[in-house]
């Protein structure tokens, strides 16, 4: 059966001096325009699957909705690349473009947009994860990323607990992958106690903000963080863990959520 996330492309390859002509699997890129209450809200370039989860997560992350019940109707026209969302209340979409700088809890905090200040949450989570379990979860995370292994062109985000992965989503956009995950959580009323997020990309400030909006306090990523991301993670009480590989990881903020199962103490870098 054809995988709608993939496209075939005739490719010329060289291995040393050997020339090979073959069809390569390429990640599909699809433009989706979201209409809210009859007005154009945004156009997202994404991977064409789990579209409703993406829309729900995007609207929640942008602060347009707070809960699933405020969506009266949601229809997707995949042939035209349009989604039509009817809300139970009017919304002023132009407010979303205004940059806002403010402070919270006595600390200076910079946000990209006004809705970030309204929707970012300081996390009070008691979730704890052993180093060994962190390695196990990332190995499981890697094992399900078949589209990445086939194309190298997508990002992945997953929800996990100490018992293992709950659900993973892929997309060409790292923010879209997180929005799909957020939409899945809202759509299925998933409890967030004792959960963490696994992420394939780098830890940027935008990624930390999205994790905060979802309401999870532990982020495990395969790549590096930025300084603003770590400042936000510290402020929002999110444990940011980067470079999680088979036998190593870096804990950057709020390290009390990660413990050494061999030493029975907090892991000290």
Structure description:
The protein is α/β, with parallel strands linked by helices and 269 residues long. It has a domain at 129-266: 3-Layer(aba) Sandwich (Cytidine Deaminase, domain 2), CATH 3.40.140. 26% of the residues lie in helices and 34% in strands. It is built from seven helices and 17 strands. It has helices at 51-61, 114-119, 131-143, 146-151, 174-187, 205-214, 227-235; strands at 6-15, 18-27, 30-36, 39-46, 71-77, 82-87, 101-104, 107-110, 129-130, 155-161, 164-171, 196-199, 218-221, 239-242, 250-251, 258-260, 265-266. The strands form five sheets. Strands 11-10-12-13-14-15 form a six-stranded mixed beta sheet, sandwiched between helices. Helix 5 packs parallel to helix 6 and helix 6 (205-214) packs parallel to helix 7. 38% of the residues are buried. Mean pLDDT is 88; it is low at 97-110 and 265-269.
């Amino acid at each position: 059966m054809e995988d709608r996330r993939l496209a075939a492309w005739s490719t010329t390859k060289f291995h040393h001096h050997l020339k090979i002509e073959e069809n390569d699997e390429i990640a599909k890129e699809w433009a989706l325009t979201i209409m809210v209450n009859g007005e154009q809200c945004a156009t997202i370039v994404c991977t064409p699957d789990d579209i409703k989860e993406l829309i729900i997560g995007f609207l929640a992350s942008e602060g347009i909705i707070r809960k699933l019940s405020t969506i009266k109707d949601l229809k997707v026209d995949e042939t035209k690349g349009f989604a039509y969302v009817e809300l139970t209340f009017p919304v002023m979409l132009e407010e979303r473009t205004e940059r806002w700088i403010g402070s919270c809890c006595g600390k200076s905090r910079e946000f990209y947009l006004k809705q970030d200040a309204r929707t970012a949450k300081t996390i009070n989570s008691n979730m704890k994860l052993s180093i060994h379990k962190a390695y196990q979860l990332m190995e499981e995370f890697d094992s399900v990323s078949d589209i990445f292994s086939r194309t190298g062109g997508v990002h992945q985000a997953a929800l996990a607990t100490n018992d293992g992965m709950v659900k993973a989503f892929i997309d060409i956009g790292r923010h879209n992958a997180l929005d799909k995950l957020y939409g899945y959580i809202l759509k299925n009323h998933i409890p967030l106690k004792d959960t963490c997020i696994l992420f394939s990309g780098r830890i940027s400030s935008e990624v930390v903000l999205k994790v905060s909006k979802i309401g999870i306090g532990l982020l495990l990523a395969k790549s590096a963080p930025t300084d603003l991301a770590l400042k936000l993670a510290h402020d929002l009480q999110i444990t940011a863990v980067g470079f999680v590989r088979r036998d190593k990881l870096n804990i950057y903020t709020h390290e009390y959520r990660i413990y050494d199962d061999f030493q029975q103490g907090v892991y000290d870098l």
